[in-house]
Each structure stands twice: as C-alpha cells, then as structure tokens.
Request: fold
Amino acid sequence: MSGGRLITARRLGALYFGVVVFYLIFPILIILPISFSNNDFLRFPPSNFGLRWYRDYLSDPVWIDATILSFQVAALVAVIATVTGTLAVLALARGRPRFGRAISGFIALPIVIPHIFIALGVFIFAVRFGWEDNMFVLAGAHSAIALPFVVLIVGASHRQLDPALEQAARVLGAGPVRAFFSAAFPSLLPAIVAGAVFAFFVSFDELIIAQFLMSRNETLPMRIWADLRLELRPTLAAVASLLIVVTTLALAGAELLRRRAQAKLDQR
Amino acid sequence: MPRIFRHWMLWPALAMLLVFFLMPSVDILRASVMDPELTFRHFERFLERAVYMRVLWHTVEVSFVVAIVCAVIAYPVAYFIVQSPRRVQFLLLLLIFIPLWMSILIRSYAWMVVLGREGVINSLLMGAGLIETPVRMLFTTPAVYVAMIQILLPIQIVTCYSAMSDIDLGLVRAARVLGASPWEATRRVFIPLSLDGTITGMIIVFMLSMGFFITPALLGGRRDLLLANLIEFNVTQLNWGFAAAIALMLLLAAIVGIVVIRLAARLLLRALNGALAR
Reply:
C-alpha cells in the first residue's frame, strides 16, 4: 500500500471513530446544558439559565434521602466486594485450590446472568426469610454482582506481581503476612482501590434488584425510575448531570490510577 | 507459598455467592414448579399463550440484532484504536469508557431527552424549518434499538480491543514478509485471531440484551416490551411462580442463543480457512 493511501485510510478511520464516539457521548453531554435551564419544562435549547433545578434537588428530602441510602449501600458494597474479592484472588492465585478454574468461572458468573434473574431470585429468597426492605440484604446482593469485577481487576494486577520481591522479604526474615504487606500489597493497592470504586458504582447505579427488594426505603435509581415514569421534571436533568460528572471523574480517576500502577509493574 | 494463603480466603466470597446468588437461583427453580405442589402449569401457560411466545421471540430477535450490529460497528473502532500509537490508545479508550461507565438509567433518560416530542432533535429540526410538527421518535421500536446499541456498543468495543491488542502483530508482518498482500495478511492472520474476541463480546452483549428492562420500558411502545418487563409485571401482580418460569425460559433462550452464536462463528472461521486453502 502506498503512503498516500495509508494516510487516507487512517483519516477515514479517524472520521469513523469520531462518528461512533459522537453517537456514544452526545446524548450524555446534551443533558448538561439542559440541566442549567430555569424553564418549567424540559426544552432545548433552554431559554434562560440558572440553578433552579439543582436547588430543587437539594431541597427535596425525598431526593436527598434516596441519595443518602444509595450512598450507604454502595459504600457497604465497595467494602464487602473488595475485601471478599481480594481474598479470593489471593486464595485462587496462591492457595492453588482444587477446582480453581471452576471456582473462578463461578465467581465470574453474575457478570453474564441478567440482573432481572438475580433480582427475582434474591426477592423470592428474601421474602422467605422476611428480609424485604433491608439495606444490608440489598448490599449483599449488590456485592454478589460487584464481586466478579473486583476479582477481574485485582486478579489482573496480581498476575503482574514479581514473586521474587516477596521471597526476598521472607529471606530477610519477614513472616508471610509481613512479607505480603510490605512487598506485594503496595503494588496491589491501586487495583484494589480501582476495584472498590468500580464496585461502588455497580451498586450505586443498580435499579432492578433494589426495585424488587426495597419498598419504603428508596434508592436513588428507584427515585429516578419513579420520576421518569410519572412526570419527567427537569429536576431529573440536574440529578443526571451530577451523576454524569461524579461517575466520570471517579471512574476515570480509578482507571488512571490502575493504569499507572500497571505500567510501573510492567517496567520491572 | 506460605500456608497462611489458603483456602479459607475463598470462603467469604463463596459464602456471599451462595447466599445472594446460588440459593436465590435455586429458589427461582423451586418457585417455578412448586405452587404449592409440583406443577408445570406455569411453563404450560407460557408455552401455550401466543402473547408470551411472541415476547420471547421478540426478545431473542432484538438481542441477536443488537449483538450483530454492535459487532459490526465495534470491529473497525477497535481496529482503529489498536493501530494507534500506544500513548494515544489510552485517550481513545477513555472516550469509550466514559459512556460505558454511565448508568443505563441515565443513558436511557438521555435518549428520552434527545428523541422526545419537544426533544433535542425535534427542536433542532423545527428550529431549522425542516419540519413543521414534531416527528414521533420516542416510544417506537427504532428508538429502543438506537438506545440499546448505544448502551451496549462500548462493551463490544472494549472486548474486541483487548482481544486485538493481544495479537502479536509480528505474525501479520511475517505473513507480509512471506509475500502476502496487506489485505491477505489481514484476512488470513489478523481476522481469524481477532474473531475470538468478537465472539466473546457478542455473547456478552447478547446475554445482557436478553435481560434488558429499563430501555424498552422507557423508550419503546407496548409491543417493544421484552421478557424482563414481563417478569417485572408479574412480580408486581404477585405471580411469582409465573415470573420464575419466565426467568428460566429467559435463561434457557439465552443459552440456546449462545450455542447458536458459537456454531455460527465456527462455520465462519471454517469458511475463512477454506478461502485460505485455495
């Protein structure tokens, strides 16, 4: 292929990439300007701007309570999924359990099983024990679907570890636990944090399990869902914009952290 | 390895999956056939009523179309990213990750804002004088497709990309050195090697579409409802046994769909290899 044709192909590729990215991102970005309108109804373009709908969100206890509940559940999930997931990674990589492959597959299963299936199961199961409307049960169910992501992220990082470092610490007289925490854990930490952030948002965004399980206590996605089906007030645009900004910053930060650490490990 | 890293570390994770995943799944199975004694009437009802079978077929059809369209759109995107310089790759991937991370609820809402009667597209078209009255886009089948593909496409791109970035480009170069034309080297070496990632992505997208709930409910009309919507409806009507039967049918259909995708991929690969032999 001649150089000229190659450049044309690259340009066509860039154009195509641009079109696809526009399709992916445009509908999300368009919410941001709309959320700053002062109009009574959603309209585009807004005719006057202000923070009216943000004030509406912040002053409505129903919205705030839902946000707080979601935050609590997601924080619990981040802790539970990250701790259990990291322990599982260590056991799978170091303990060489029998059926290790099958266990890894089983842990990954909730990624591909539709959430509606898990939601229905958890609901029927919870009813049997009188566990409905309980935020800890919700956190448990969310942890089950967040776990595979933590295992994937931390597991990938664990594979990059250099076992020689830990062995050196052992040779120098550290016990196994101390050797792990001084020689391996610091390298794993970025992936663990990234996994925790990821798990947090798996829970924070989840609707269906919460919708089945909870009744009086509403999570933020449940509140959004109810609003979407009933009235579509512009408050929603403000809530959505906040979520878009927070999600992007948190996850981009976590991803950046993870990649930096990965690159550092790759250099060794 | 020291004894301390032993199997007990697996227990918390497995216990959690047991309580919040495995036992609930068993409960679905039980609820579908015990009501209160052993009965298959929920499955019979599902199979006998044309409405339910129609929704099943519609769900399978939508999921196949979405998986295929995503695969076709994503492949060149992933290829473009892989061919870019290393430093740029992360920035390009970030543009794919940002929509990937966004909640499905928010993205479906965004499409309501874009496609609605007084939405962005209608306002722009009317502002430009191209149309007099708003075009009806919301609550139609195309709206569901446009949104579902937008929501699932990033997953396909990322899966496809990671498979492609594992390919040793030295193999393609070797084919070139051995006299293959650029297209031949791509077709014989790169495409077969990248097909696995594409298929994995398609299976994930297919599986997720099968369970889609939010998007059809918000953007589609009555006829666009999928199996998941049917499950939710029956839960609110307290027909748990029937909801459980639908959930199992959903899972069964998804597994059959995956087998079909795998078989089709094998045939395709054989056809590519046949072309190679000639």
